[in-house]
Amino acid sequence: MIAYPDALALLLDAIRPLESESLPLADAARRFLAADLHSPMALPSFDNAAMDGYAVRAHGKPLPAGVSFAVAAMQAAGDTADAFPQADACEIATGARMPEGFDTVVPVERSERRDGQVRFPAEERAGQNVRRAGSDIARGELALARGRRIDTAATMLLAALGVAHVDVVRRPRVAVIATGSELNATGPLPPGGIHDSNGPFLEACFAHWGTDMLTRTRVPDVGDAFAHAVGEAIAARADLIVTTGAVSAGRFDFVPAALASLGARELFHKVAIRPGKPLLATRFDGGPIVLALPGNPMAVAVGYRFFVAPVLRAMAGLFPERPTRVRMAAPLIGRDGLHHFALGRLEHGADGRQTAHAADAQASFRILPFATSNTWLSASDAHAEHADAWPLDPVDAA
Ligand SMILES: Nc1nc2c(c(=O)[nH]1)N[C@H]1C(S)=C(S)[C@@H](COP(=O)(O)OP(=O)(O)OC[C@H]3O[C@@H](n4cnc5c(N)ncnc54)[C@H](O)[C@@H]3O)O[C@H]1N2
Ligand code: MOO
User: Which run of H or of E encompasses 1?
Assistant: First the structure.
């Protein structure tokens, strides 16, 4: 049986970053930048006032308390005048361009205005309250690095830089196929039936990550519905097909044989992990990667978090995720030779250090511990005093 790091390496070796496309900024939200973006302009692009008040020429020397000036000009935000050679003081608004030669702004609250004169009762520092051109970002400076998600902060920066279109990685095309004759949608269940939770879970995961969801289908364990669904996904040029169930050792576990008969080449089947051991990874030449996850809900959760998410990262051109090393409140118990994944909570101990508590009574069919945890934990040691912690959702990973 293949070890988890080796399985992951084989899988990632089969992935290339997806092509890029140029999108209007608003449509690029939540996408990944395809290339480093260097600033096309300086921000601010001109020296401007940081306060409403009076611009004066201090020439590098403090303004003594009690000094007064004639106010001979007014500069509002958006005004275009760049020099008032006759004026010693200029009324100025926040964001307004500093007229040439003016180097200091005294806020209106620290001034006394009488007719055409302004007086500053206290001493004022030379050069204060001026926002220099390029002091946020210089022209040509790296603004956002390749692989950066266009989050709201990135959108603010790009908008300020006047970037209209961005080169982003196209979204992966994904299909989900849940197998199982026992599966039903919401509503009353027939005897022996269960609600399909893996399909909606994966659909939500892919929506949250940001994929182009081609189809989500539910197929019984008999007949050719599975082969048909795989064929449709290939025809729709899926990059990734994720299936759940029918991948272990039972009579109805038809997925490995069905994929092989469709021409998929096996990368690995069965990984030394728990839960999720029967996982199968295959690929179609010139076509999609198929990750066939075992049907138990926590095998699907682990399969998404530790196999699918690394694939999504690689497709986006991101580096592999790095977990945080944490101390366990009590040793995480696993089985020798298996890499184990567990749910838990990260809490700050009395000493201020972060400590992980594994959730009670975890089992691969139990969903409640997933819904009450705030972290994934992993360890390859059967009696782990320390573990790797991973954000519950890969979207939250650095
Ligand atoms: N003799 C063996 N039996 C089992 C083995 C084994 O190695 N030898 N492995 C166990 C492990 S570990 C897992 S995990 C499961 C995986 O089995 P399959 O991938 O074949 O999955 P199914 O049998 O189809 O389903 C397992 C379980 O999950 C429920 N399920 C399936 N799909 C969904 C869905 N969409 N939503 C909610 N729940 C689902 C299904 O009803 C079963 O209870 O096999 C063990 N057995
Ligand atoms: O994937 Mo199975 O637990 O290991 O349920």
Answer: none
Domains in the chain: how many in total?
4
* Judgement on whether residues 178 and 296 belong to the same structural domain of the protein: yes
What pLDDT is recorded for position 77? 82
Residue 161 has pLDDT above 90, yes or no: yes
How much distance in Å is there from the Cα of 250 to the middle of ligand 2?
A: 14
The secondary element (H helix, E strand) that includes residue 311 is helix 309-315
pLDDT band at 336 (very low <50, low <70, confident <90, very high): confident
Provide long-range contacts, Cβ within 8 A and 24+ apart, for 260-269.
261/227, 262/227, 262/230, 262/231, 264/290, 267/7, 267/10, 267/11, 267/14, 268/2, 268/7, 268/10, 268/11
239: CA distance to ligand 2 center in Å? Answer: 26
Residues 202, 283 within the same domain: yes
285-329 pLDDT tens trace: 999 999 999 999 999 999 999 999 999 999 999 999 999 999 999
CATH number of the domain residue 121 falls in: 2.170.190.11
For 156, list phi and psi in degrees, rounded to 5. -65, -45
Residues lining ligand 1, Cβ inside 6 A: 178, 180, 182-183, 194, 196-199, 244-250, 253, 275, 277-278, 294-297, 299, 364
Residue with tokens 């196929």: 177
Distance from residue 297's CA to the centre of ligand 2 (Å)? 9
pLDDT band, residue 84 (cuts 50/70/90) = confident
Q: How far is the CA of 365 from the centre of ligand 2 (A)?
A: 8
Nearest CA to ligand 1 atom 44: 248
* Nearest CA owner, ligand 2 atom 3: 275
pLDDT of residue 353: 81
Verify that 68 and 100 share a domain, yes or no: yes
Q: Does residue 303 have its Cβ closer than 6 Å to ligand 2?
A: no
Q: Which of 131, 152, 182 is the last residue of a domain?
A: 131
